């Protein structure tokens, strides 16, 4: 089915639930559960649960005429919104009703490696048809998320290709400001397939220097990569489900997550601006208003949107083929009844450094250079991804001293923009393609293709720490490394 035909059919769909109401209804908090609530009941012979996640097959109705089967949490995609209080210990019971071992990763949290949810960090698996309890103290406050962390390889029905993801909010008690609605919006791609002809249109918006571009480019044929032609925000394609309903003068708080397994995505809301105050859940030094947002897989943006342009609009992907493939949701003002309107943003470029201060950070205790390369068809039919000339593992190559500050210099010598994630820590962005900045704290950062980014982090979370590209296929085929504490 062509994208335009899919959108035409989805547009004729019956109305479903709005994204705001869907996630509000699925929220779990650390308050006592009502008796008899089957989805949240703690299994027998396990610690008393503040939260319960059941991993099991689920049908996702992207549109009434397009229903897919995947694996999810508690029968929904996204999984339930988990709200925790910063510093208050929680127990999450995970029940695995599938035939394969599973891991739940708590993305962006400062927690021990044995509960972080990664096999490489020696977290115990949730066994098939078994259960496991994760106990930790949630920290730091902000917009986090949780998702499966298994490897998929050539199996496109595993790991982050499935519906195993959900929002995790850690509340500190400090409200970010007055707002009239709070929305949780997850960008997703579905029905992945292998192709040798993938073109990442979002990356073509990149402008600026390419300091890591090799003099002689590798002209060997590319290996198979993963692509998709079906997209959604939460569990509905554009044209299916209720719109986001607003009134003129309202302020809407949006928590936006790229839960894709495949690509960076760029979104906009015509006639409106995103007043961004946090990246990856961490407040930025200099809040800014932008027309479009670029998010790599794993990244989150917190933004206010002032509703001051009455009409009916599409909040969705900047690229026509992505938006027409379903990545969008209608925003409808009160008493406005017309066809949804889309206008491309005048300025769609993305620059992290506008949110930081133009300061230089003091010299670190040690600098670690990390060079990323792609070997076309270097792993059978698939590309191989190298960190400092090697695929994972890197036997004791990255060893850090507790309490020391490290500067990681990311040299991206590939033609892909990579969203890089460091588990159990945050890092401070200090340079992007030669532009200095400070104060921007993240756990995932996109390094532009042929680009260079520099981040500082303090080794203050002892234990095994996984570093990887958050594009599933890149991680599966070598793009990861393990940091160890001395």
Quick summary of this structure?
By secondary structure, this protein is mostly beta strands. It contains four helices and 33 strands.
What this model shows, in words?
The chain is mostly beta strands. The protein is built from four helices and 33 strands. Helices cover 5% and strands 42% of the residues. The longest helix has 9 residues, at 3-11. Strand 28 and strand 29 form a beta hairpin. The strands form seven sheets. Strands 13-10-15-20-17-18 form a six-stranded mixed beta sheet. The chain has helices at 3-11, 19-25, 320-324, 472-476; strands at 28-29, 51-63, 66-73, 82-85, 90-96, 104-107, 130-136, 142-148, 165-171, 181-190, 193-195, 225-227, 230-233, 244-246, 251-258, 265-268, 274-279, 282-290, 292-295, 300-306, 312-317, 328-333, 366-379, 382-387, 398-400, 405-412, 418-422, 427-432, 435-442, 444-447, 452-458, 465-469, 480-485. The N and C termini lie far apart (54 Å).
Mean pLDDT: 90
Q: What value does the Rg take, in angstroms? A: 21 Å
- Alpha-beta classification: mainly beta
Proportion of strand residues:
35-45%
Using brief descriptors, characterize the structure shown.
486 residues; mainly beta; six-stranded mixed beta sheet; 4 helices
Outline the fold blueprint:
Blueprint (H helix, E strand, L loop, with lengths): L2 H9 L7 H7 L2 E2 L21 E13 L2 E8 L8 E4 L4 E7 L7 E4 L22 E7 L5 E7 L16 E7 L9 E10 L2 E3 L29 E3 L2 E4 L10 E3 L4 E8 L6 E4 L5 E6 L2 E9 L1 E4 L4 E7 L5 E6 L2 H5 L3 E6 L32 E14 L2 E6 L10 E3 L4 E8 L5 E5 L4 E6 L2 E8 L1 E4 L4 E7 L6 E5 L2 H5 L3 E6 L1
